[in-house]
## 1
Amino acid sequence: MIHNGADIPETFAPLEDRPPRYILYFGALQSWQGLPVLLKAFDFLRDLEDLHLVICSANRPKFAKHYLKMIEKMASRERIHWHFQLAKRPLYQWVREAALTVAPLTECSRNLEQGCCPLKVLESMALGTPVVASDLPAVREIIATPELGYLVRPDRPAVLARALRILLEHPEKIAEMGKKAQEHIRQHFTWTQKEAELSAFYSRLLGQT
């Protein structure tokens, strides 16, 4: 198997008008991405009054209508911010400055049987921002040890909220985890490495090695 990869940008411009402390979800809005689990988990954190949730959607605003209705009923609704279809550079800036990113993938056939290799996990790690993600086989292939990220049982908002709370109480642990995650990507998951693996695979197929 040849996994997806990630780039590691070297320079960034500071974000303007960002919340002082936020966690981030970025990606598409299909049901198997698990965004409702994250929204419910964030409401469990409503006592953390300085904490915001930023959602960078790969989809157009019309695809967020269901989630916006959910948010209307939440106590923490004023601290949830949306951005839609950002270009890669500004998206990476949001990822890099987040306290944590969250990949709340659901435990469903799409993620277990069809399989996936979540780019959001790879890209966040490449930017030095640790990920709290669902403990699924595809994710464990990337976050192979606890020092690289935090895995939680999928589809359990209270469990996810507790994991987020624990990490947010230890910023020094977050910083160290981010450094190790980025180095892990640098050593094993860059696009250059994946292109070389694919090229070697086709060479073997064609009997050239």
## 2
Amino acid sequence: MASRPRSSRLRRTLLAALVTASVAVPVSGAARPAAVPAPAPAALAAVSVTTLDERYEANRGNIRAAERMAAEHGDRRRAAALRAMADPARHFLSFDGRDGGRTTEIFGDLSRAARIAVLVPGSDTSLDTYGRFRAGALALRQELGGRAAVVAWLGYRTPGTVSPEVLTPGRADDAVPELQTFVRELSAAKPAVRTSLLCHSYGSVICARAASGLEVADIVLYGSPGIGTDADDVAGLHTGATVWAGRGADDWIADVPHVRLPLLFTTVGFGADPVSPEFGARTFEAGDGGHSDYLKPGSVSLKNIARIVSGQTPSEETRHA
């Protein structure tokens, strides 16, 4: 009988959050600048080691065109960010500056990499906030060293942290086929390489929903609100990958109720908690950090995530049967 009041409280919590988000989004959105125009990306062949330089150059040209359009639009901040992205030292496998932006940036030498980490970001990641996503990718690349490459995959329109979309799997459903296609292309280009999928916050919902169609060595879920599927455990993801989960001691995401509530046209909440013993993931120590600290230089979580990518056992690992 004790579970009924708790379930009722969780339902009220999620519904209250949904109502709050529905009210907050129009208000906050009204203060944002209009969408910044950008050209449609050029059509490119599938990812191939032999054509990497051509892809990098084609996307650099697209970024420069987007920079010019942003400057003409009067958005100097966006133009400055794009100018930095167009630096010849940076390498983009894909770039689309429209609708908040979609990018795939490479850190390290992809053609020679023996280990690849693909980062899948969570909410509020776009061209305007890209710096923090890139900082995490750079920190991980430095931690990995050697013949490793990090792929910062911003291949979907992320939800706002305060929005109705962040409580539902809609944006994740749009992202799943894009992620599966990209990982397949990457695997075809680098078939003998160990690839790990690193999924933060809402990104972990995408990875869990895509898991059965991904051939990767590891799926690492951290700062996760849940997995966004009806699965109650790792077996329900139907993946051959090793599934890892971690949560920082100061991460507010721990307070999110782990339920899935069917409503009229959607489902609210993301269900099972990946770090719970019942879920059965291999957990790793994530230290005392908060929700945005998992790839912070020098952090316990960064060191352990890098060890997982390298095929090593994380320090202070806890295994759940």
## 3
Amino acid sequence: MKPVKIVFDKSYETDYRTASCEVPGRVSSIMDTLSPLYETEAPQPCSEDDILLCHSEGLLIVEKNDRSRYDVARMAAGGAIMAARLAIEGTLSFAVVRPPGHHANPDHNWGFCFFNNMGIAVRKILSEKLIHKAVILDIDLHFGDGTDAIFHYDDAVRVLNIQSSTRREFIQETRSALKDAGSADILGISAGFDQYELDWGANLTTGDYHEIGVIAGTYARDFCSGRVFILLEGGYYLPDLGANALSLLTGVAEGVDGK
């Protein structure tokens, strides 16, 4: 059975300046569910050079003007890097990070995102030649325009944004997209939970996240040597956020282990 670790830092609960719905309780609710079940590892903040792997110096300078937000955004990207490295070492990892990142473009950001956590993590391990090819699966309600823009002309990274608006179509699109993705050295999952039936998307059930996880984990087992990591993106219905995160994580674990 593949080991599982949660990447988390208390700074993710910082009440920094952002939208009213993007609250510290998002990560707290997930950790209340996951921390009793899995080992937790604390990351280090990413460096400015790491940020510049994906973003312009102008965006970096703008974000440094809000120091509390900047510090936690660096820690979120650092958590993403740690999750990717754990996956390379053979551990299934879930970085319960905040702020999210998939709307952070090379030279601008929006949608509660400041730096692109997934982009920085994948570019970091590519630059270190720990991998040569990656697939990113984004299951958030909203199109991950930042991640798509970062890797749009990069043949080493394929970004799959799943955008179907019904349960069965969403699951089938996930299956089809991964089937067509081919082999890679690692799978990164941008895990937004705002497609949930009681969240903004009013679509997926808790059980659907498990099924999506099995599909993703099976793909990682068959085409990525079992290397897979998960990063938190959206998800705003706090009462069930932990259950949905656990459902996805256990599904991925079952897929990777071939259960």
## 4
Amino acid sequence: MSGDSRGAGDRPILDVADLHVEFETHGGVVKAVRGVSFGVRAGRTLAIVGESGCGKSVSVLAVMGLIPMPPGRITDGTARLEGVDILREKVVDGQDVRGSRMGMIFQDPMSALNPTMRVGDQIAETLQVHRGLSWTQAFSRAVEVLAMTHIPEPEVRARQYPFTFSGGMLQRAMIAMAIACEPDVLIADEPTTALDVTIQAQLLDLLRELQHANGMGMVLITHDLGVVARMADEVAVMYAGQIVESGSVDDLFYRSAHPYTVGLKSAMPSRTTTRATGLHPIEGAPPDLFDPPPGCAYVERCPNAMRLCESHQPERFSVDPAHQARCWLHHPSAPVRIDDVYRGGST
């Protein structure tokens, strides 16, 4: 499927709005996702970045219909795939969404793949269910997509079991399964976790190559800003279940508009980092999502927090037309402007 046939102009293929997800536990209700909104366009990559536990994976798993309910529940929001709310309708244009219109690459391919089935059979099963192919046709296509992921001897590998594959090859097999039905949107949840840097680079190049070939939109879940710089077109920065900043990848790295984004960058090594300068970790810990703070979730860790931040949720301020941030430092009446604090070379 070509990129020209997907979407119209800059209209998102997948448009998620005001998503709220909670989990009922013995200790109370965890408000894991609190009003998340983002859009994914054809042929473009949206990176959702943030530290562990911020709600990145839960957001996309909820959209895919993969969170266990109970204990999880979606309390509000929409996720429209080409205009159809897939949180309520699981079929778009006569096709099941999950596995067909949307594919997903999971963090741990060993636990995601069935150890009792041959790799080719697992890919073929997806094609039989979603495309109605015969087993012979589906297995032939499975070999074809394994070859697309540059697995050597795909005809042989398709007849082998997951335990015979290395970590990098397992991840390629997961990618092959995810793209077998030529999805409109591909979700990659930490696709390079636990892989060495050489294999990471190969897999990221592979994802970009497949995206260009198929014109699909991609959501990349990661905590690695190096991966973001390499892969992303747009970025959404998450903290404590909310998106605190969103914009282009250049906005994130060169025009950071939220103190948390600045903190993430300061904690990342760069060419100018030396033993003398060191890294600058973000002090403290994220808030308890059993009882989120009434104001800004970042208030306890922010070096420029104001009294207002403790009691009032920050508005979503437009820094530029396509660049937004939730921070009171953008308010015209703020005593200190974020431009002066973070863009003046003091950090």
